[in-house]
Amino acid sequence: MRIDVITIFPDYLAPLDLSLIGKARTRGLVDLRVHDLRAWTHDNHNSVDDAPFGGGAGMVMKPQPWAEALAAVLDDGRAELGADAAPVLVIPGPSGAPFTQPQAHALAEVPWLVFACGRYEGIDERVHEHAREDLGLDTRVVSLGDYVLNGGEVAVLAITEAVVRLLPGVVGNEASLVEESHEGGLLEYPVYTRPARWTAPGSDVERSVPDVLLGGNHAEIARWRYAQRLARTAERRPDLLSAHEASRADGAR
Ligand code: 6GU
Question: Which regions of the chain carry the CATH code 1.10.1270.20?
Answer without folding.
Answer: 179-252
